[in-house]
Amino acid sequence: MCASPASAExxxxxxxxxxxxxxxxxxxxxxxxYDEIGLLAPSARSRAGHRRYGDADLDRLQQILFYRELGFPxxxxxxxxxxxDADPYEHLRRQHRLLATRIEKLEQMAAAVRAAMEARKxxxxxxxxxxxxxxxxxxxxxYAEEAxxxxxxxxxxxxSLRRSASYTKQDWIRIQEEGDEIxxxxxxxxxxGEDPDSEAAxxxxxxxxxxxxxxxxxxxxEIHRGLAEMYIADERFIxxxxxxxxxxxAYQRAAILANAAxxx
Length: 264
Fold this sequence. Notes:
Blueprint: E1 15-16, H1 17-24, H2 28-36, E2 44-45, E3 51-53, H3 55-69, H4 74-81, H5 88-121, H6 128-135, H7 144-151, H8 155-164, H9 169-191, H10 199-215, H11 221-233, H12 235-241, H13 248-262
Antiparallel strand pairs: 1-3, 2-3
Helix pairs in contact: 3-4, 6-9, 9-10, 10-13, 11-12, 11-13
């Protein structure tokens, strides 16, 4: 079994090249190369001439690996480590600064990737031209992160992602047309003076719920009520819905609540 620094019997213990490779993850070939170029020469040799590494060698190797991880070429690593005026702690301070900078850049990259992932999760994998053709001036990607934050831990949200991930442009056009037809029927009822709790209005509200169930997730009456409340609680929804007819958002809410009540 390979030894490790933690198992050393004394500070003066020496390790073979195989042991060092085993507990550091550096290949034997790499250790040989570091020795050949003078970057990490073992402090001792066995009687047979085999390399033997001490604690100071392992400390230097750790410094080498830090700088290599940060992308420094070997010749620059050698200059940094062999600087006679360098304080050992200065290496740590320098590495900390470099790591902090790298972490900041990686976090920025991760944020960009997360944003792209959320857009993908919404299943809206369309070109900008196709999005405009399907959704008009409403951009669903704009609300992707907010939707994930509000409902990301719900089964309905996960089910919606699973379904929409496979939707094509034609699927979205079909879903949009179905939704537009329901909206037009709501408008017709509102203009005709039908009460939102009338049978006709409640029937359209039920079709709206069924549309969600068919295309997105199992929209229970409780969930449907929550959506209805959001239609008038969020100014963005009011503006978008009322484009078809002023007061439509409130009318839809009332019809949805009445429909949920008759099924309770």
